[in-house]
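Review this today:
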Amino acid sequence: HHLTGALCSYHSAASSMASVPGRTPHGGKLVELVQSKERIAEIKKEAVSYPTLTLTHRQICDLELLMNGGFSPLDQFMSQKTYNSVVENMTLPDHGNLIWPMPITLDLTKAKLSAIGVDPEAASWDVKVALRDEENNLLAIMHVNELYRPDREKEAQLVFGTNNRLHPAVEFLLGLSGEYYVAGPLTGVQLPMHYDYVELRRTPRELRELFAKQGWTKIVAFQTRNPMHRAHRELTARAATVVEDGVQLRLLVHPVVGETKPGDVDYHTRVKCYKEIMKTFPQGSALLSLNPLAMRMGGPREALWHAIIRKNFGCTHLIVGRDHAGPGEDQHGKPFYDPYAAQELAIAKQAELDMKILPFQMMVYLENEKRYCPIDEVPKGEPVANISGTKLRQLLRTGGEIPEWFTYPEVVRILRTTFPPRLRQGYTIFFTGLSGSGKSTIANALYITLLEDGTRPVTLLDGDVVRQHLSSELGFSKEHRDLNVRRIGYVASEITKARGAAICAPIGPYAESRNSVRQQVETYGQGAFIEVYVATPIEVCEARDKKGLYAKARAGQLKHFTGIDDPYEVPAKPDILIDTSDISVRESLDLILNYLRTEGFLESTR
């Protein structure tokens, strides 16, 4: 049983009104929502009759920090009044306009509302709902007494400074989140279950007690969502040499293990790297603890939010580096936020936050002096070295040498295990095209060729075979075709994760479901999804039609037939384009094999 959840579940509620050691939490007291052991037994009995709401992973991250005090003074998902005030002014109206930069809301679709018996058209609401995780563990009871439709375009613009969907938080908000927000009192039953790194998952109370036990009074937090290398070690070690009022700062390395930016290094790999880095700090000067936060990548506002959360966890200072919580660049290569905007806003709000901000410049390596220094302190004309994240990923992908000045050999070893060179990575080849275009024929030829190559296991997910084994109950409506392709994508992504090769050959008529499969597969490697558009013209497909399907469709005997009475959405930018009306299967195969060799998935032929 998950120890951290279980143990602090039982001591937190009993002591939720008791004072906590260390500095004052945001808003004056640490808000802990998990009830006493006796009360939990009663709640569990009552909850049997309540409708269940199964939370998403992101909602569970938010709920955990609401329940353990990380989001103090919040004690529930935001009401419309609070939400509007936070979006527009970054203040909490029911807490004397205390600073708070980020909306914490429970978003639901119309379908989810109806499943819990909440009618958006009603005049008022009074519904108790059991909030559960995917395994049906009861986490909390929510008394839904408010429902509102947010202006999500406005939220994106004011909170994240943009409506551009290339910003991950904007894409989530405008593309994936539910159109309704619900609010109401929360009663905590237990913190979410975690079975990994239990000893490193400390609640705000547990961390504060540990600081008190070690006699730490001034603590600087380092927020990160990336593996740490020598530059980060140098930066954090410098912060831990600061002496304030005669007291030396201690360092809390507090990485996010909830949700980060899509495409980031997974947290299991990162935690292994952090554990190695921690060995390099002087004994008793630094501590590692994990933060279950779901990041929004919100730049300046996110920096303020991170400061408040670390304040609740007992810290007095926060390091804010260059481009803190930045989501990267837009389609024109322009960063969403100015690299020092987060620092400037955090410094301007220090007094309101009641947190000291330590702004740090980017650290670079002086090649001649063989040491790190902030970029603004580099002697004139001195050559500097730096390896970007992109360059590091390229070195890992190609098996190139990663210099020791950049990171520690132990960290390289961990990263190489997670990111083997392309030759040992999995991939998915996704054929799409009309019926009779030649997809299955080429896919079969490729399957046999890759089996002969023998460098990795190969699975062929042909359209007809998948329909027989995975999707036998599905018809040919748009919804069912979508679902069929998403099922294929799920299986392909699991094969890719296990470092095999998946060959998929559905018709895949809709761009949205193809893109969804691409995203799923590329979680396990950039460029691991290879879209092959078999662009054979419909008249050629029709002339080849062995099963007489086109003729039946034209006669109206077959409904929803792609290319006749159902649309085929042509891929905008396929990785490979093949027209089998003018090239042979052998030539088609060579095009694909050459692509795999160029991209490093297959040995190049000498």
